[in-house]
Design brief:
five-stranded antiparallel β-sheet, mainly beta, single chain, 11% helix, elongated
Length: 444
Amino acid sequence: MKKPFLIAVLACMMFSSCEKIVGDLDFLQHDLAVQGVINPTLGVPVAHGSISVYDLLQMVQVTAAKVEIGDDGIITITYDTAQKFRVNLDESKGRRYRAGAKSDSVEYVHISRNSIQGSVNIDIFDNIDSSLNGASIEVDNLYVSIGSSVKADANTDALQLMELYHVDVYYDSLYLIAIGKDNSTDTIKLPNVVPIDSLIQGQYIQLFDKTDISHVINKRPKQIMYGVRMNIAFEAEFFATGISESQFVSDSIGVHAVDIDADVKVEFPFSSYIKDLSYKTDLQFAPNIDLKELTIDSSMIILDCNNGLPLTLGLSAKLIDSLGNELCELVDQSPAILAGAPVIKDGTGHFVSNGKANSKITIPVTADIFKKLQKTKGIRLDATLNTTSTGNTANKNVAIRSTDMLDINVTAKAKPLYNLNIDLTGNNNNNGNNNGNGQKGGKR
């Protein structure tokens, strides 16, 4: 309590009660205090911060992805994984296959075939509404790259014997399968043959090199599966009846097994067109203070947003309890619209943000909401995304760069209830409180 305010209060008491003071001084024998409730209105800058798409991805817990920056500054979400395979020719059962003419002099070959399969999970679409509901996504590219290190576990003379018997090793039957959120599939087959020239010494082979599967984006892929077949081929004249291919390769040539290390990379550059895409997630609510110690009458937090992202967001937020039950709306005038930045075409032909758009979001903290906050264990965030219009129907995609930021200024406008009980006689009747500065009320 400031001294001028205390003096004013005392003056008012004296002028309004001067007759009683002159005629009767008995009240001075009792404790004297100023009591009541004050309800000031405050508008206080609280914080300023900036957030990028990387930060947003961390908020919605896209944990399996890495965020990379391309040479053009465009943000790319990348998933990669490595998987090991071992083709054990000692234990495999060989079968004979006709594979067509190998050369003019040799009509047929016999081959041993072993299929290799793997997958990589995509979680960026996990919280996106599985039904389209009129929403659509278009992307410039969605790349898949798969490489394979292959090396034989073989005897020292295996290479010489393979050359002697004209043994060929190659990959074929390459395919990719994109599995959508609704479990629908889209298969891409590549019929080309990839030779393995250095099986004994070891070799790295690029099976898929940034193969574009952007047409599957509206399936909201949750998994990319891949497969390839390794073939060991040799001329038919070297086979005795009843000898299997695997026995021939393992026993006669000395190739016992083949070790394969596959690496898979899925790249999703943020150059997209998004319309009415719904995104839902629950965020943990764990305040650092005990909310029960505070009393709030009518307050609000105002977010003054300057959006440099070419994304318009419609935001709704609900408080939820430990069971996931919704307690109340958190954002005033839900959904609050956060306008996207205007765009302009850059020198590379991409539409990119050009300046920032200003929006304000109000978060009320009424007494009712504040009571519910004490039961809150999470915040249910529901966002609708739309990319800024380019004005070009032939090119609606906009790119998000690492330099694109959302600036937020936070202002608190509060009306906290405060029970006033200031002791004027030095007995410190303010509920045992010394007003936070070590001085009793009478001393102030």
